[in-house]
Amino acid sequence: MSPRRRRSADPSGSRTRLLADGPSPGGEPEGTLPDSMLIEHGAGGHADEDRLRRDAHVLRDAETAESAQAFEVVPSVDGEALPVRGVGKRASTSPAVTEASAGTPYTFGVVVLTQGKRPEDLDRGFRSLLAQRGVELDVICVGNGWEPVGMPDGVRTLALPENLGIPAGRNEGVPHVRGEFLFFLDDDAWLPDDTTLLRMAQMMRAKPEIGLIQPQVTDPSRDDAPLRWIPRLRKGSPEHSSTVFSVWEGAICLQRRAFDESGGWPAPFWYAHEGIELAWRVWDAGYQVWYRGDIQVAHPVIDPKRHDEYFYMNARNRVWLARRNLPFPISWAYVGSWTLVQCLRWAKKPQQLRAWFTGWRDGWRLDPWSADEEQKKLSGRGLLAMTRHGRPPVV
């Protein structure tokens, strides 16, 4: 299937700059929401390409064959055992570890997007990444309107001259990392288990029809994880695994080919609902999207301070989801159902509804596509696949 848009694997195809660690020439821009929401890039020079070809960090648990111990991690999805293999030196923190022969390496391109506002959290996330066992990592820190400095050994940096928003910023990092799998990690999230990436990669190797996995999100210091972290209408237990049709975007793993064939993150969105479109497009590309309740990533529980911009973006992007992806009359049914939901939910909060309907109107008025995107809606096959798995895209 031809993708809607292709991310160039040529590092010189972007106007972004790859930076060595060093002092930042200026402060940290806050990043305002531009009127057009679209930013184009010109061609870059070959010097950046040379820097990008520096050796990526390769995480190995054993330096010699004599010290290496092969192991097999056997994750399960609601009791279903999956064969997985890797190479390790010490006992895994996961409960099921047995000896096995080493297989093909599990290679990951890892993209961490940040504005540099949470340096301690960012460092914690990198340490948890570099502690992952049985995988080979190519890690890049993308500074969204910020020049990343002080990165640990093995983490390369990419500075974006402007804040492009979250989806577009993540997209910018993808052409600069190599690997069979992609992993996106927010700068305030981390991996509490050292076989997290291995287990997700092994599931997708064993079941290649699975293109995207979102783990369970927890806060180790609390037991009141918000239900919004479970991407299901009927939430159920957070430990229950299932197919899903949206994802919490802070820590997700994809087969790289599924990302490429789906077209990547919806760049114009800036933030809000980009995890819904990515999941829909992965389904449309012929893959499944899974929530893994038996694999955890960590993220602090933060009381979201809702403001007018949040309500505006929530509504505008909801309309854009329909316009970009759904044929008529499904698009109208989708927007209509969510309009009714929001009116009922916020009937006693007119200030929130006022901002929401401003975004709703702009969702119909503004162009939801980037200049370089193929304006292609979901196929009948994709709509049927989601419906067959329990979520027709009308709610």
UniProtKB/TrEMBL annotation:
Gene3D superfamilies: Spore Coat Polysaccharide Biosynthesis Protein SpsA, Chain A (3.90.550.10). Keywords: Glycosyltransferase, Transferase. Residues 1-49 are annotated as: Disordered. Pathway: Cell wall biogenesis; cell wall polysaccharide biosynthesis. It comes from the Bacteria. Residues 119-213 form the Glycosyltransferase 2-like domain. SUPFAM superfamilies: Nucleotide-diphospho-sugar transferases. Belongs to the glycosyltransferase 2 family. This is Glycosyltransferase 2-like domain-containing protein. It comes from Brevibacterium salitolerans.
